[in-house]
Amino acid sequence: MENKDGEIKLNKALTFPQMLVIGLIAAVGTGALFAPVAMVSAAGPSAVIGWVIGAIMYAFVSLTFVELSKTYPEAGGPSRYSLYTHGRFTNALNAFASLIWYIFIPPIEALATVEGLQYLYPHFISSTGAPTLLGAGLGVVILLLFLPLNYFGVRAFGRYSFYIGIIKLLAYLLAAFGMAFVFFRFQNFYAYKGGFAPFGFSGILFAIPFAMFAFGGIRVVPDYSEETTETKEKRFLGRTIIYTVLGQSLIYILFSIVFIAGVKWSAIGGGISPGSWGVLDTVITENPFVYLASTFHSYPVLIIVLIVSILGPFVTGYVYVGGGARVLLATARSKIMSSSMKKLSETYAVPYWAIIAFVVVGAIVAFISAPVPGIYALLTDAVVAGYLGFAVTPVSMIVSRRQSMTKESDRIPGGPAIAVIAFVSSSLIAFWSGWPSVPYALLILTITMVVFGAVFKIKEHFVNSLWYILYMVFILVMSYIGSDGALNIISFITSTIIVVLVSAIVFFPWGIISGLKEAYVPEGQILPELD
Question: Could you tell me the pTM of the whole model?
Answer without folding.
Answer: 0.90
